[in-house]
Amino acid sequence: MNRRQLFGLSALTALMSSYSQKAHAANATNKQSRYTSVQTLGVATAEWRYHNGAKEFHLTAEPVKRQFAEGFMVNAWGYNGSTPGPTIEVVEGDRVRILVTNHLPEKTCVHWHGLIIPNGMDGVGGLTQAHIPVGETYAYEFTVQYSGTFMYHSHSDEMVQVAMGSMGFLIVHPKNSNFRPVDKDYAFMLMSWDIDAGTYTPKPHTMTEFNTWSMNSLVFPAIPHMVVKTGDRVRIRLANLSMTNHPLHLHGHRFTVTGTDGGWIPEQAQWPEVTTDVPVGAIRVLEFVADNVGDWSFHCHKSHHTMGAMGHNMRNMLGVKHDDVAEAIQKIMPENMVMAMGATGMGEMSTMSMPLPENTLPMMTGNGLYGPIEMGGMFTVLKVRDNLPKHGEAVGWYEHPTGTIAKPYKM
Fold it and tell me: Which of 17, 26, 147, 293 might form a disulfide with 92, Cβ 3.0–4.6 angstroms?
């Protein structure tokens, strides 16, 4: 055997050993828990390797460019090229090591929101650890004690770093695979942004007057739909790192609130709802059986949170006839488009084709089978079907059986 063959055999042996180690860890995890992986729609699941006795993840805190919707790019901060950062999934009892590399323009650290871990791993800069300097990597290592839905987010210069998108999910699956199993498991991070029309960078110092509302840093109609089969048991995990509460409402189904960032709610203490309020800095987990076919809205019930970017100094023109004024102004300003809007409501905005500043979404957008949906922001759709198409095929709009849809009625 020559040196080249020996080197190749050594490399192959090392590769097989590495693969065997990963496979052994994956098999051990599968024996512990066979769970339904969480779909953080529009966001990747974090990759890991088994190394030195722990599941090892790597997060890079860095500036990212995030497309909130077609034609709307945002300069944000996040992890591994995304905001929210990739969803970390582990199993109750796992030893976990998370390497955090700082490529932000300032120091940072990461807090593991809701996890019960040693104090020195809690990730509060200046209190439980030194801040991570620019260009350096710190290791967080702990054993996850309890299953549930948790978050990670910056705890350095939090007003700026969280406001710019430095956040993500950390899901701990039960070791017992028979504990509250579901068929579909979704996660949405709720967030608010103040992005001036025609600009790309959020204003992190804003406290109340936000104009963009997102789920997983996407806005309608770019938020992917939840697609399930009739009879599926569905879980939706909602985390709120915005500056206000969000009452999330699901059409067509009643659900049960089964968990918070404090853990699972005992069955005898759960309560039924069709709208659940998600407070600031909190998590709510809801579950239901998808037993009603159709296309069902899922959205924040604060009306202005289901709108696109809008100004806060708009005059109230409801009921005011001013089309004649618009015509007169148009005559003296022919180079501009002058419109009379708001006299009979804002629904007309969804069908208008008017010029907008660069990198600005309409206030209302998106179409369904029957025309404009007249929504924006925190709005998506639960699609329940008796039969799902083959993997990779799109699920179209629900077509109602004859006689089951609202129609004109003559008195």
Answer: 147
